[in-house]
Amino acid sequence: MQPAFASLSLLAVLALGGALVRANVVTTPPLARFIGAEIRLLDTVVLQGSTSDDGSADVDEVWDYQRAGLTYLPGPGFAALGVAPGASSLTLASAPRPAGKGQARPAQVTVDVSYGGTVATADLRLERVPGSAEPGRWRVPVDELDGLFARRTLTRSQAAALKRPGRAK
Fold first, then answer.
1. What is the per-residue pLDDT for 29?
2. Distance of alpha carbon 34 from alpha carbon 54, whole angstroms
3. What is the pLDDT of residue 100?
């Protein structure tokens, strides 16, 4: 039985009195990269999710995993939100706008996808994943993802490695 991580077969061929060894190597894709994701309200993790890939996706493609199936389960601070068990949607919201003209509402909701960027916003709409095998799965709706896309914070190395640097959403 061959190991699951790789298989190796060698074929030795003798040619003209000298030994020539040719290796036929079959390998599996590189080790997977773990991608953790969190949604925080006031620095408290309320939802968390994860996925993995082969490491070839750039920061924009990793962010888009949220469109393709990266969903979130309740985290340590979720119970304190008091969400009704049958709720189909949820909006996480920052504190109200401070009194006074020109005061911006604080951005206290954070979406952090490792290898995909981080964004802080004043509020975030979420929807429950219908028909999920695990009750309590949530996702960020596509229109919310589009609005957050351009405001993400990336590292310099992530920005330099973008495959399509001019992409807007």
1. 56
2. 9
3. 67
